[in-house]
């Protein structure tokens, strides 16, 4: 399996070494990435439709996602408040309102895309043997574009190394998530490397679901997608509640999304001082999602 995982990992590395200065080109890449995510998640739904014993597989997806969600979430929330006690962080109170409903709808759209693919696969009398090869080909393009995005995100190595709080948040999230993944794998009697891979999504539901689905099949892909999507939706709710007293906890629970999707919530509810911490921790976690997932599934 290792050569196959390296084959998938190469486009990400190649993309990361490409520097782009054109703003319009970067915007085009961002739009293309979003569209490819929709396409691959639709294909994931089609893959689920092609499973034998679909109802039992859907139950397995739900069991996996719920177990991993609680094990990882509890592990995160037990450790991150300790970090808040050790590294005091001042926040600023703002009166701006954050459009939480619209942010939730952005996530819910992707659920409908997967569900739409599933319904089409069940209703239309079409062969589905082309879905997996198509998903893998589009995944290679997606990883290449994600590599470019990460390289051109504006973060320098110096900025990352000098932000002690951002580094600390990312480290705690990584360690506790992996411990939670091991616990979930033990409870479900799964291979431990699969548990570690499932725990390495850090809230990036689209990429995590796609990578797990390509590596371990649609059941793991669907479970990973649902796990990370639930984490993001819960983060949207918890960040405004926690950030005044436990800013590092709020940022850490947002995982990889603190760099982009939940960053507006962090900024408007915690103030501008929280932004560098969120960007650094989110960048590190985003960078490690494909690296750790591909590493663990290859073991």
Structure, described:
This protein is mostly helical and 299 residues long. The protein is built from 13 helices and no strands. The chain has helices at 2-16, 23-49, 54-86, 100-123, 131-151, 157-162, 164-188, 192-198, 205-216, 218-242, 247-253, 263-270, 274-297. The chain is globular. It starts with a helix and ends with a helix. InterPro entries: LysO. The chain crosses the membrane at residues 6-24, 36-55, 61-87, 108-128, 134-154, 166-187, 202-221, 233-255, 275-298. Keywords: Membrane, Transmembrane, Transmembrane helix. This is Lysine exporter LysO family protein.
Q: Can you give keywords for this protein?
A:
globular; mainly alpha; 299 residues; 13 helices; 0% strand; 78% helix
Could you give a short description of this structure?
The protein has 299 residues and is mostly helical. Helices cover 78% and strands 0% of the residues.
């Amino acid at each position: 399996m290792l050569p196959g995982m390296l084959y998938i990992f190469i486009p990400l590395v190649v993309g990361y070494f490409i520097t782009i200065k054109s703003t319009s080109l970067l915007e085009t890449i961002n739009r293309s990435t979003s569209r490819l995510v929709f396409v691959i998640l639709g294909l994931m739904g089609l893959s689920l439709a092609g499973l034998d014993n679909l109802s039992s597989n859907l139950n397995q997806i739900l069991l996996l996602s719920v177990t991993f969600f609680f094990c990882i979430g509890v592990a995160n929330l037990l450790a991150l408040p300790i970090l808040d006690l050790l590294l005091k962080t001042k926040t600023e109170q703002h009166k701006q309102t954050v459009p939480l409903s619209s942010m939730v709808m952005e996530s819910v759209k992707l659920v409908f895309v997967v569900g739409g693919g599933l319904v089409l696969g069940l209703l239309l009398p079409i062969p589905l043997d082309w879905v997996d090869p198509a998903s893998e080909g589009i995944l290679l393009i997606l990883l290449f574009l994600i590599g470019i995005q990460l390289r051109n995100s504006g973060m320098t190595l110096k900025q990352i190394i000098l932000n002690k709080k951002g580094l600390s948040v990312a480290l705690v999230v990584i360690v506790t998530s992996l411990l939670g993944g091991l616990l979930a794998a033990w409870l479900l009697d799964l291979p431990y490397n699969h548990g570690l891979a499932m725990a390495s999504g850090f809230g990036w539901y689209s990429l995590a679901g796609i990578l797990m689905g390509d590596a371990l099949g649609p059941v793991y892909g669907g479970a990973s997608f649902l796990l990370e999507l639930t984490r993001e939706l819960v983060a949207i709710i918890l960040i405004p509640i926690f950030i005044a007293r436990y800013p590092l906890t709020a940022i850490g629970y947002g995982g990889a999304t603190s760099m982009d999707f939940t960053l507006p919530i962090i900024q408007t509810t915690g103030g501008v001082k929280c932004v560098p911490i969120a960007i650094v921790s989110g960048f590190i976690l985003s960078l490690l999602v494909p690296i750790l997932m591909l590493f663990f599934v290859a073991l």
